[in-house]
Amino acid sequence: MIFIVIPVFNRKELTKACLVSLYNQSSPNFKAIVVDDGSTDGTDEMLAQEFPEVTVLKGDGNLFWTASVNMGIKEALAQGAQYVLTLNNDVVADIHYLESMQHHLKDTSKALIGSFAINYKTKEPDYGGAIIDWRWNKTTYLLDVLPKEQHYGLHRVNHFPGRGLLIPAEVFQKIGLFDEVSFPHYYADYDFTHRADKAGFPVFCSFDAKLFTYPEESGDRQNRRKKTLKNYYNHLFGIKGGGNLVNFTKYTLRHCPPQYMPTFLTLGYVRRLGGYFLK
């Protein structure tokens, strides 16, 4: 059985749509754990009334993504989970989503398997994982190089977010949980996939396990909508800032080979300082 951990903060209707899609699966063999980090929009009442089978854990509003996910993972492991799927609430799962995930476990029981993201509104592919080449300071996104006729099955990556990431319990036993101290919100998932890969747990994207996403709902996208000095500062230094320079630096120091670090950091800073105004 797969334990699904979903951190939430408000956005009640998105959480509801996500859970409805899970309970309508072709293979609904799972347990859901929702970590509600202090929602004020009636999320707790909705969960109690419409999804009484869901385990709900409560935070005080200061957990952010990483500590929320870790709280849910600890509960899942305490209940004997062999596999944990981390999932955001702003997604809708394809009806065969979990069936596809379970199918791949037959041959990749010690691998992390990520989900293929499709834009809910346009129905166009949005994300299929990435490979970082430290030497050339290059991030290759699979959707940029993989022909459309190959958008199926498993594809090897080393850089993947926690939005729809299936993780064997053995991984947590070997490398621990997500690093909520160094990366309280962003980068914890990327850091985790690199740590797992180094520890001998390969990372794949399953192009068969489809999640429909709302890219515009991400905190970073919303921060970019209105270009102000305050939002620019939050982009570079805020906990929810997609271009957070501190997080990027910690991530690079931890994973980039020393000989490539100066170039990787320099180019990364330039992209983050200027990229805010280009998107």
From TrEMBL:
Residues 4-142 form the Glycosyltransferase 2-like domain. Gene3D superfamilies: Spore Coat Polysaccharide Biosynthesis Protein SpsA, Chain A. Its EC number is 2.4.-.-. The keyword Transport does not apply. One of its GO terms (molecular function) is glycosyltransferase activity. Keywords: Glycosyltransferase, Transferase. SUPFAM superfamilies: Nucleotide-diphospho-sugar transferases. It holds the Pfam family Glycos_transf_2. It comes from the Bacteria. It is an enzyme of class 2 (transferase). PANTHER family: GALACTOFURANOSYLTRANSFERASE GLFT2, RHAMNOSYLTRANSFERASE WBBL. Belongs to the glycosyltransferase 2 family. This is Glycosyltransferase family 2 protein. It comes from Pontibacter silvestris.
